[in-house]
Amino acid sequence: QVQLVESGGGLVQPGGSLRLSCAASGFTFSTYTMRWVRQAPGKGLEWVSSINSGGGYYADSVKGRFTISRDNAQNTLYLQMNRLKHENTAVYYCRGRNEYDYWGQGTQVTISS
Q1: Residue 110's closest CA among 10, 33, 18?
Q2: 3-state class (DSSP) for residue 77
Q3: Residue 86, SS3?
Q4: Which of 28, 72, 79, 99 is most buried (most C-beta within 10 Å)?
Q5: Residue 83's pLDDT is what?
Q6: Residue 99 pLDDT > 90
Q7: Who contacts 60 (Cβ-Cβ below 8 Å, separation ≥6)?
Q8: Nearest CA among 82, 93, 89 for reference residue 111
Q9: pLDDT tens digit string along 16-67?
């Protein structure tokens, strides 16, 4: 059974940091391009970052503040988010794509003072 389980979301003040994790199981994690995608309140899905064998890629809005990484031995994807802003408030989803397209259930990130 394929599972992607996000964790690490929460409420943080502007300028703060959070580290999201996504634990994967049920598929060959290391062969999948992994992504973080978010959905802000009242808006559509927005790609945040991807990682594959070629490295990490970022949306312009998060470049220099967010860092994506993965541990293939632990089948876990990470997103380190620094200098968070109000507009980063969203549900963050982990997504794995190769032969198939897998999604997690999401974790809420709220930036508020």
Answers
A1: 10
A2: strand
A3: helix
A4: 79
A5: 98
A6: no
A7: none
A8: 89
A9: 999 999 999 999 999 999 999 999 999 999 999 999 998 999 999 999 999 9
